[in-house]
Each structure stands twice: as C-alpha cells, then as structure tokens.
Amino acid sequence: MDVVVEGNCYISGRLERCCIGIEQGRIARIAKILEGDKTFTFGSRLVIPAAIDVHVHFREPGMTHKEDFGTGSLSAICGGVTCVLDMPNTKPPTTTVQAIREKKRIASSKSLADFGVYAGVFPGMNVEQLVKEAIGFKLYMAGTTGDLMVPSLASIRGELSAIAATGKVLAVHAEDESLRTKDVERSLEDHQRNRANDCETSAIKKIKDAAKDCQLHICHVSTRESIPLIENAEKLTSEVSPHHLFLDKTSNLGSLGKVNPPLRRREDRQALFQALKGGSFDVIASDHAPHTIDEKQEDFDYAPTGMPGVETLVPLVLQLVKDRHIGLGDAIRRLSERPTQIFGINKGRLDIGFDADMMVVDLMDSTTIRADMLHSKCGWTAYEGKEGVFPKAVFLRGEVIVEEGNQVGERMGRDVVEGAKPA
C-alpha cells in the first residue's frame, strides 16, 4: 500500500479499529492489519469521511477582495471539508462554457480542496453545452448577490425540461420575488419582514410544480412551514445551513447576521433543529458567502447579505454530536454520504474505490471559535465564542493536508466532474 491510515474508523455505519490501505489516492483495502510505504497511526481517535460542502461562494472571479479559491479552500480543508461546490453568482457569472472553464482554470491553480462549479440558470441558456462542465445547475428565484434572478418560471420552461433530461441536480434559492417587500431595513427584524416565511414556502411550491421532472435540491431551508414541503418529496432533496440552526433574528449581530434567506424567528430555528434531529434534511451546507468587515459595517439597508461558514461547518456539527443532539452517523450522512449520492462525487465514504478523503477527530476536544484562528480572507465569523470540534488531521486523496489546524500538504485541488464515479 502507498499509505495506511490506522484508527477507530467509520466503516459501513459503525466504528471499527482497523487500517485503511490507500493506493493512487483511493481506498484499496480495509483490514485489521496492513503495511504501507507510509503509515499514520491515530489510536482511539475517530477516522471519518471528510465533508463535502455543496454550497460555497468563493467570490472568484470578480470579488477577490472578499475571498478567493486560495483562502476559501484553505478555510475548507482546515475545517475538514475536502470538496466544495461553488455557486455561479461571480463576476462574470458562470452561465457560459467559457466562464465555467475559466473559473475551473483559476480553481485548479489555487485550490487546496477538490471542487465543482455550478452553472447559473437563465432564459436561453445552452443546457447541452453546460452539462458537460458543471456539477449541477443553480436557480435563483429572488434577488440576492449578483444578477441571476429568474422571477418568472414560465420564462425557463424549456430550460427546466432540458435540465431534467440531463439528470443533474437543479439547486434552488427558493424565495418568491413577487412576495418580497422592499421597505427600508434597519435591523434583522426588518430584513426578516421583507422576506417573510411565505416567500420561501410559495417558492418551494412553485418550483416543485414547474420542475417536477428535475432532481431538485432546495438550498438553505429556513422556515418551519417549509419542513412538510420537503419531507418525503419525490425527486427532491434539501439542505439546511448552520446559521439557520444556531442563529435567529434575536441574535446580537446587526448587519453581520444579514443573509438571504434571512435569520428568522426563534420558533423557526427550533423547528429546523428538531427536524434535523428527527431525520429531515439530506445535507448540511455552509452557504459560505463572505464579505469584508467594512462592507458589513455599512448602514444596515446597504450592507450586503451573506456570512462566512465553510471552516466552521464541520466543527459546529461535530459539537452537536459531542453534545448528543445528533448521532455521529447522522452527521456523516448529511456532511459526506448524501452529498456523494446526490451529486455523484467519488468521495464521502470510507469504502473500496472511493477517494481517500478523511479526517481525524477527537470528540472530547472542543475549541472556542475565534475569528483570529480562522482562514477566510474576510476575517470575521458570526460564531465567535461558540464551541466546535475541529479535525486533528485531514487527508485529501490519501495525502495529509492538515495537521493540528495547519496546512502541511501541497495544493492538489481538482475538478470532481472529471473524476470517475465509484463502480
């Protein structure tokens, strides 16, 4: 074996003291005892699949003063995320083959994590060309960062049919622009009022009807009324983000907490949390959307929407495991296994033939989250002072890239669309 990793490994849904043998970046053998050219021994520490964050905005090209693929991917790997799927609302947006290829060229030169790129949905798009390059498609049903809003689903009826025929995921920012009000905002309360709960539920109902043949993925579900709409729905998966689980409009964040969809009522947050504990939501994703602190400190009404989160995603979820709110298997399913299944990525499981992406964690060892310990270019976090379980080591395709919170490996990120799926 090229590499052997020994520890308390999460294999087929349970922890097992064993060795994972790696050849050419993929898991080749799992056994009690293996020998390798290079061996890593972690004793009783947990060896679990690294995470896949299916919803990040690394801001490149066009907004690299906020983030870029170098700093964003460094944040990702230090938080246990070895694969990121980047959203299309950059400058220019990834709505053409040329734009996607250019973004992937940039990512290939900078990224420490593997990556995929979404194609933005718009009237007249060439689905047949884009499907060869994109990990999936992203539809914005309301105004947010960028200019990719498609408020009328009737205008993309043909495009939705073409996307359905590809079998690839249609990820949806589900807010109904026709129900959004645009009154002056001075607080998180005002922002929530302008994008009230029915904006989300109406949008989910509309897209379920208009795109019923598509493999729908509803991003960042935020309201309690949305939960029945996404549970047990055919050809529909869903995602919840940490900020909607841990924060609400009463959080003392000011414009730092301004996101779309907004932080909502405490009752919504609690309902999402209970739904997560009960088995709802296929994926937990960060919606990492950084802006500089100067931009966020503008008057509330003008401050941009979004917050960083890729580096704190896994630690916050593992803290829930430590505190026994959810099981370890529940966390791994949402962070690793379901993203693998939904997007067809050759990662997310410690099994033969899968990429050897894994992280080593000690659930007894929590860290207080501070902005000065994180790696995003934006330099702040909404989770300041909260506890998280950070990985002790992270492997990407069998190569150790993080040890004790520090990058140790070389840049080796690549496009997952070009990687083969497991047999």
Shape: globular
Average pLDDT number = 96
The tally of structural domains comes to: 2
Sheet with the most strands? Answer: 8 strands, mixed
Name the CATH superfamily classification of the largest domain: Metal-dependent hydrolases
The poorly predicted ranges are none
So how many helices?
Answer: 12
What's the CATH C level of the largest domain? Alpha Beta
Strand order of the largest sheet: 3-2-1-4-13-16-17-18
Distance between the termini: 21 Å
Q: Tell me roughly what share of residues is in helical segments.
A: 25-40%
What class, by secondary structure content? alpha/beta
Question: Mind telling me which CATH architecture of the largest domain this is?
Answer: Alpha-Beta Barrel
Tell me the total number of β-strands.
Answer: 18
Radius of gyration: 20 Å
**Could you say what the CATH topology of the largest domain is called?**
TIM Barrel
Strand content: 15-25%
**Secondary-structure element order, N to C:** EEEEEHEHEHEHEHHEHEHHEHHHEEEEEE
Can you describe this structure in just a few lines?
The model has no long low-confidence stretch (mean pLDDT 96). An 8-stranded mixed beta sheet has the order 3-2-1-4-13-16-17-18. By secondary structure, it is α/β, with parallel strands linked by helices.
